[in-house]
Amino acid sequence: MTCSASDSEKIVINCGGIRHETYRSTLNTLPGTRLSWLTEPDAYSNFDYDPKSDEFFFDRHPATFAFILNYYRTGKLHCPNDVCGPLFEEELAFWGIDETDVEACCWMNYRQHRDAEEALDSFEQPEPDAPEDDPALTGGADGDLKRLCMQEDGRRATRWAVVRPFMWALFEDPYSSKYARDNAATELSFPVCRPSQE
């Protein structure tokens, strides 16, 4: 059996148990990346290569690899919707692909995890301790008492007094949080039937 020139240019990559077949020239479209190194003459000794099956093996996430290999084929890096951002970010780093190559249509989906982390970090910042002569502790500034969870007489507010504004916002202001939006959607889906007053 003879191999044509195009067959000898093919390379088989087994990623997480799923075989992918492509051309060496396709892998050379992004020089300096891990997949482009497979086309070098010493790749057989530098990577996990099985001569029986004539394939390179990588124990990585197979679904994301399909998107990465497609980037070599099309020049467009799209992000899968069913894979979380940190996982895709980790895979890009492993394969040596710059995250700024993610297409604009997928950028929001890709960045969503970072935006959420940044928002959570802003909520977790501890407030600085108030000095002893702070007017909020003596009842001087109204809003500061609520912020410090203190009542006007200097005692700590009850748990309900602290939680109450959030509960009101949950049911009254659907734009106050994600949970408030979910609650508003539920209320619209299942309206409460009230008996008529006669």
UniProtKB/TrEMBL annotation:
<dbReference type="InterPro" id="IPR003131">
    <property type="entry name" value="T1-type_BTB"/>
</dbReference>
<dbReference type="GO" id="GO:0005251">
    <property type="term" value="F:delayed rectifier potassium channel activity"/>
</dbReference>
<protein>
    <submittedName>
        <fullName>Potassium voltage-gated channel subfamily C member 1</fullName>
    </submittedName>
</protein>
<keyword id="KW-0812">Transmembrane</keyword>
<keyword id="KW-1133">Transmembrane helix</keyword>
<dbReference type="Pfam" id="PF02214">
    <property type="entry name" value="BTB_2"/>
</dbReference>
<dbReference type="GO" id="GO:0045211">
    <property type="term" value="C:postsynaptic membrane"/>
</dbReference>
<feature type="region of interest" description="Disordered">
    <location>
        <begin position="120"/>
        <end position="142"/>
    </location>
</feature>
<dbReference type="GO" id="GO:0001508">
    <property type="term" value="P:action potential"/>
</dbReference>
<keyword id="KW-0407">Ion channel</keyword>
<keyword id="KW-0472">Membrane</keyword>
<dbReference type="GO" id="GO:0043679">
    <property type="term" value="C:axon terminus"/>
</dbReference>
<dbReference type="InterPro" id="IPR011333">
    <property type="entry name" value="SKP1/BTB/POZ_sf"/>
</dbReference>
<feature type="compositionally biased region" description="Acidic residues">
    <location>
        <begin position="120"/>
        <end position="135"/>
    </location>
</feature>
<keyword id="KW-0406">Ion transport</keyword>
<dbReference type="GO" id="GO:0008076">
    <property type="term" value="C:voltage-gated potassium channel complex"/>
</dbReference>
<dbReference type="InterPro" id="IPR003974">
    <property type="entry name" value="K_chnl_volt-dep_Kv3"/>
</dbReference>
<dbReference type="GO" id="GO:0051260">
    <property type="term" value="P:protein homooligomerization"/>
</dbReference>
<keyword id="KW-0813">Transport</keyword>
<dbReference type="InterPro" id="IPR000210">
    <property type="entry name" value="BTB/POZ_dom"/>
</dbReference>
<dbReference type="GO" id="GO:0032590">
    <property type="term" value="C:dendrite membrane"/>
</dbReference>
<feature type="domain" description="BTB">
    <location>
        <begin position="9"/>
        <end position="113"/>
    </location>
</feature>
<dbReference type="GO" id="GO:0042734">
    <property type="term" value="C:presynaptic membrane"/>
</dbReference>
<dbReference type="InterPro" id="IPR028325">
    <property type="entry name" value="VG_K_chnl"/>
</dbReference>
<dbReference type="GO" id="GO:0032809">
    <property type="term" value="C:neuronal cell body membrane"/>
</dbReference>
